[in-house]
Phage major capsid protein
Amino acid sequence: MEQTVANAAPEGVAVDSAGASGDPLESSFAAMLKTDEHGERIDALEGAVDGVKADVDALKGETATLKTGMARIASAAARPVLASPAAPSGAEVKGGATSPALRAFVDGYLRAGRETEIKSFNAGSGPEGGFAVPDELDAVIAKTLNTISPIRRIANVVQTGSAGYRKLITHGGTPSGWVSETAARDETDTPTFAEIAPPSGELYANPAASQTMLDDAAFNVEQWLASEIAEEFARAEGAAFIKGSGANQPRGFLRAPVSDAGDATRAFGTLQTVFSGADAGFAASDPEDRLIDLVHSLKPAYRQGASFVMNSTTLALIRKFKTEDGAFLWQPGLAEGRPDTLLGYPVVEAEDMPDIASGSLSIAFGNFRAGYLIAERKATTILRDPFTNKPFVHFYATKRVGGQVLNSEAIKLMRFGAIN
């Protein structure tokens, strides 16, 4: 009993089982187990640290990307607003900043080629056919076109939702008259209708810029693109509205049938010609008389809003004409925004009008708002192409445009030839 008490450990002191056995192998094995356990814990901690480092690096990359995007957005917001007071309804311009749709289109698609950013705003077409431009950008293209495309500026322009636009018009007049309240009404003739279906084609432009230009936040890509597209469109459609064949393009008014017969006897759709008085030129004496005849061949109702159309070479000749008292027939527009006039009517210079030659139709006079119809799809579509011509990025822009003479009584032509 006394021996047992002597060998007992003091109260509160733990006795190691290995130590109690006194076996050194068991002690070494226990120490090894503890070492392995500590190593596993260290490896786990190191793995966790590596994972945290990877997450931190990823967050740093995302932060840098966000900072770059925010810098581009801030630069775009600082640019002048594209939309004008005449911008179409639905243009989202608030507080002097461009709309989200325009920012996504310019910074996401035009600059970087990211299509996902504009799909939520854009329901027009798809990647293969390009995307319809936002209203603000389309308004800038249209405004520039109206400024530099001569016939568009004076013609009747309608927006269509489909390619096959058609318009019914009456010709020959609608019978009318005066009667008392209770008097019998005479039966009137049925008016004659004609269907106008202007031939159309796909108008395209393909401006290019380097990726370095697009990456430059100071480069105003939307203004540059609108200007490039409008200039190319104006050049192509300016020729088509005057002399287009009507095959996959508008039919120009010079391609309409012509006759020297008056309005009462001429077939509908045929334009009247007035002779200049001499072959390949004007009559030697009183050449201005033939211009006056041209003006008065147009009905008075159409003379309100009528214009002369000719190229600059023909205009240079006519500017030298004087009246008997020495006054020039041509008068400059002295006030800002006022056009130059000939016999009191505005003069539109269209370089696609033919030069004076034998039998040429070098001068047109008429109310083109009533006489010539331009039918176009509303939206311009742009397809970004960074592959065809590296290192340049092309922007293939398309728009469907048609045109045709609408009222053949509203446009008259001067034929350069002797009087029959």
Observations:
- The longest helix spans residues 24-78.
- Residues 1-10, 12-21, 80-97 have pLDDT under 50 and may be disordered.
- The two ends are 157 Å apart (CA to CA).
- The CA atoms of residues 86 and 238 lie 23 Å apart.
